[in-house]
Amino acid sequence: MEKIVSLCKRRGFIYQSSEIYGGCGGVWDYGPLGAELKRNLRSAWWNTMTREREDVLGLDASILMNPAIWKASGHVDTFADLMRECSLTNKRVRADHVDPQDGVVMKYSGATSPTGWRWDRVVSALMKNGEHIESFRKRIRALIAQNAGESAGKPEEIELLNEEKIDAVNGSVDFHPETGGALGEARPFNLMLKTYLGPTATEADVTYLRPETAQAIFAQFKNVFDSSRVKVPFGIGQIGKAFRNEVTPKNFTFRSREFEQMELEFFIKPDEAVEIISGEVAAWSEGADLSEPQPNWGWELWHRYWVDQRTKFYQGIGLGDVLEYYWQTPADLAHYARACVDILCEFPFGTEELEGIAARGDFDLSAHQTASTKSQEIFDEELKTAAAKLTDEQKEALIQKRLAAEAAKTKGEPLPEPAVRAWFERLFKGSYVPHVIEPSAGLDRMALAVLAKAFSETEKVDEKGKKEIITVLHLHPRVAPIKVGVFPLLKNKPELVAKAREVYALLKKHMNCFYDETASIGRRYARQDEVGTPFGVTIDFDSLGEKGPELLDTVTLRHRDSGEQERVKISDLLGKLLPLVS
Ligand code: ATP
Fold first, then answer.
1. Pocket residues: Cβ below 6 A from ligand 1
2. Fewest CB atoms less than 10 Å from the CB: which of 77, 113, 466, 544?
3. Phi, psi at residue 359, to the nearest 5°?
4. What is this structure's pTM?
5. CA–CA separation, 272 vs 238, rounded Å?
6. Under a CB-based contact definition with an 8 Å cutoff, are residues 77 and 67 in contact?
């Protein structure tokens, strides 16, 4: 991971935010190549999920919204992580991010220093197995001094009071992973970043930077539906910034406080509506054909379909072989969710979530309908017509099936019978609040995943016997920030330079290219390999026709991963490269 972080900085992919002022926790900036990489991933998502489909529309909503949205969605009350505070340093850590540790617990009644400073706090800390008592004390003094500021004087002059050896512990999760200080009780910590809208900055002006892009889609569902002549099933996709005051941002950009999400809310009919229209709801089984959506699909097949679609997307950007799936168990699931699968990816620090795909029922739209008192129902003529053909017995059978399902619920309150009957009454008239399948991906995590997957290092010994580490990013051509490097063989031959400039100008209009005439051609290839450029084009004397007219206006096209070099006519170059990089 350190090597990737260092390459990212050295070659302009990712920098620490505000670095000249010591950084800004959990926030990152993308440099010239990172910006291109992200843009390519963003376009890949946008094109696959919206433009190339007939049934998904795009949205670009604002980051700031009426805070009532966050109340209705549950974020104000429940969007919290449990966090614990270090008793030595007040540093916070997410309760579920503390790995078990072994060692001996040491206790102090406080500390003093020759400056007259005094700290009356009983603290304990973990001396890790293998840590020498003297280096432990030194570490504790340094931590206390850091926290106390200048008044405590020099760390080495701090006296730790009444040292006691308490206990040996094994597998304890009660000590801060970095400082070793004992952790306090777990307390919920809301992850939303608060801000004030308007100049008075009173409590009445409080709103939040959105912690996800999804809620704007729900809040604008009716507008999109009414203005776009679409029918359920259809989706609304959005890409945009999200903010979470993560207790412990970590693993480079993986867990940041400011990040970008790419979310789709795909609205579907409730299963009961599908059953009324199609006479049945298709059941999912292993190997089911998911290639074309069918009218008799209920939530389960739609959910499986989106897992399949998203998997294909990741295959298309070179991540196909590093994915794993975690199907949340009934115990993991939120009470309203029917299923949720996390698409996990192998990162250098472990296999972690890249995207979540949840079947959320009608929870979100219904919550906004209740809170805003604005109907989120849609009217479905086909449903009304089909329902009109049902006998009373058939209708009652549907109601009874639903009542039995409500009674069998193990989470959340079952819907009372009058509410179930009222819901069916609306349904039989063709009206319902759509259900939703939500594939929700993180752009920054995706960028990190492709960088990590692409990174490779090999040792090479040159002609003089000198060892050199060769770094190559095997980025998929679709996502690579630079698609082609254009090189005149020599920079002091004006004819070569002129022709290379011509090729560069030709390609540049269609893809991001890099022109380089300095250093040996091998060096120039290596520089581009290091940033993942999949193709190199070299203009040499053959290109000028010096070896005969048949090679005039041809170039050498080098392929990064195979090292293969082929002779290509300049007039064929664009046609050959465009399909490979887009
Ligand atoms: P985690 O369990 O890792 O905190 P989550 O389940 O809370 O993630 P979701 O709310 O489902 O995440 O968000 C959807 C996606 O947004 C995630 O799969 C991830 O790719 C991205 N994401 C969420 N939080 C962050 C973050 N702090 N930094 C970067 N990306 C994030």
1. 212, 244, 246, 255-256, 259, 261, 353-356, 440-442, 444-445
2. 466
3. -100, 110
4. 0.89
5. 29
6. no
